[in-house]
């Protein structure tokens, strides 16, 4: 009976190993310079402590984030692959090598939630193709937090990322946003390089109807957080100085 029991336990162990699917955790990071525990649950901190292999957008900020999660983490014992805007698609598959060995991994963005307006989505797509388990963790998203606080339509909205640099294309994109707002009542969300924030607001007030609403959300979850919604006419009359402050912009028009 003991021999049979031992054999049964061994078979169970083999079956467990055969069915184990390694997990790719999508590990959010703070949007601003705050303690990670202020914007994410303790369970995220436990993942940061346990995972040994990371795909990151920025190596320096990722290492700093992990140390802020737990100063006892031995950073030098971890492995990091950088996945950013310069990474070639052909390089992504090799980054998941630890998962081929049955080990868990985590993706860490430079700020906010991985794979949302973030190159980490390429690694998630590869993990899904291979049948690995993908586990998104709770954390701050500037897109959703700004939308929540704007007072705009949260039923239908679109995130456009950065506007085109070319002025003609930029104006055309703004006009398309205006049409979507007016025809579909769709909130339009976008960002700008921080040092051009003030210029963007001037462009919006010069290009779009003055009764259109603009919400500007700066330093979300940070010590300088400010989320303000007012008409473009008021933004023109009451300009804000937000150059070099991380910001997100939302447009809408009330009936």
Automatic annotation (TrEMBL):
Signal peptide region: none
Lineage of the organism: Bacteria, Pseudomonadati, Bacteroidota, Bacteroidia, Bacteroidales
Cross-referenced InterPro entries: 4pyrrol_Mease, 4pyrrol_Methylase_sf, 4pyrrole_Mease_sub1, 4pyrrole_Mease_sub2, rRNA_ssu_MeTfrase_I
Family matches, as CDD domains: RsmI_like
GO BP terms in the entry: methylation; rRNA processing
GO MF terms, alphabetically ordered: methyltransferase activity
Natural source organism: Paramuribaculum intestinale
Protein name: SAM-dependent methyltransferase
Domain Tetrapyrrole methylase residues, every copy: 92-233
Pfam families recorded: TP_methylase
